[in-house]
Specification:
Strand order of the largest sheet: 1-2-3-6-5-4
Structural class: alpha+beta
Order of helices and strands: HHHEEEHEEHHEE
Distance between the termini: 34 Å
Length: 165
């Protein structure tokens, strides 16, 4: 596994990037990681989660992976209330909308990601095991979309793709 992939898989290392994002310095990570801020309905507090970006399928959107099990409370919160803020690349705390993709679309995106990068992360390995009939919870891909701007400065909303459509 490549050293950068190992670092991105470490929760502690990812949490160290939060102060950079909060200071507006998220561009230093070159769009490889994103910080999502969402408000929990349970306690009303704003929670921050830093995740690896696995790709983008439209202007003004990124794809991130919600790992299986209890590490994905942020994903459950966003499924219940998709409004959030995203900081990635030059975008700082942009209002965004989360869409948890279906199992089939998530599997296809993770397989494509695994094919592009030889250093598979644990969630990618688990997705492959599930595809081969293994047991366990499947990781899900989450699309985070915000209003994009085209070069002329006119607003353009990224197309919303529905799973299976």
């Amino acid at each position: 596994m490549k050293p950068i992939a190992r670092l991105l898989g470490s929760r502690r290392i990812m949490r160290l990037s939060v102060p950079f994002f909060r200071a507006g310095l998220g561009f230093l990570f070159c769009g490889r990681i994103a910080m999502i801020e969402h408000q929990s309905e349970e306690d009303g507090q704003v929670h921050r989660t830093v995740l690896e970006v696995i790709g983008s399928d439209a202007p003004g959107s990124v794809l991130v992976v919600a790992g299986p099990g209890t590490d994905s409370h942020w994903c459950e919160h966003l499924a219940a209330e998709p409004k959030c803020w995203i900081s990635v690349g030059l975008q700082y705390r942009r209002p965004a909308r989360a869409e948890v993709l279906g199992h089939q679309e998530s599997r296809a995106l993770l397989a494509g990601h695994a094919a592009r990068y030889s250093g598979l992360r644990e969630v990618d390995r688990q997705a492959s095991a599930v595809e081969r009939g293994g047991s366990g919870h499947e990781p899900r891909v989450v699309r985070l979309s915000w209003q994009a701007t085209v070069r002329t400065g006119a607003p353009a909303i990224a197309p919303v793709l529905t799973p299976g459509g």
